Design the sequence.
């Protein structure tokens, strides 16, 4: 099983960034936990502060042999139609993750333009959301329709 984990802007600052909202773990801590927890999964970790680089990473799954994507698009979640369109192209499941509960926060965070083209959205589970998303991908039936 090959899973791509994509993290968007400012998530490279986890640990320092608003710890009362995002916790004290760094992105490396979260990624290392995933690697340790799922030894049979081949993870590729990607983080970028740039919208186009995230579009490129999503597109790369078409040529490479990925089975699923976990995406925390961060602020792009709320307005990036380019990322939404890139997800819509894919034949593999994409799970959207947010560390915080975006529905309990500012109005602009409550709407995701990417969630409608993802198979699920996990929001408010803290960093455990990444692991829950991987779990979901491991049991995801590709033939399932929504
Ligand atoms: C976030 C929530 C977004 O609104 C915010 O812009 C982020 C992080 C989260 O993980 O809770 O950067 O995606």
Sequence:
């Amino acid at each position: 099983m090959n899973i791509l984990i994509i993290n968007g802007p400012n998530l490279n600052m986890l640990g320092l960034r608003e710890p009362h909202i995002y916790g004290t773990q760094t992105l490396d801590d979260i990624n290392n936990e995933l690697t340790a927890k799922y030894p049979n999964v081949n993870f590729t970790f990607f983080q970028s502060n740039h919208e186009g680089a995230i579009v490129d990473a999503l597109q790369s799954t078409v040529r490479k042999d990925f089975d699923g994507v976990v995406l925390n698009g961060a602020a792009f979640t709320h307005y990036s139609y380019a990322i939404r369109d890139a997800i819509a192209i894919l034949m593999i499941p994409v799970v959207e993750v947010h560390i915080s509960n975006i529905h309990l926060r500012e109005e602009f965070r409550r709407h995701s333009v990417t969630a409608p083209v993802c198979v699920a959205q996990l929001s408010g589970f803290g960093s455990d959301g990444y692991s829950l998303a991987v779990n979901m991908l491991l049991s995801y039936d590709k033939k399932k329709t929504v």
User: Anything to note?
Assistant: The helical segments are 19-22, 27-37, 51-63, 81-89, 128-138. The chain has five helices and five strands.
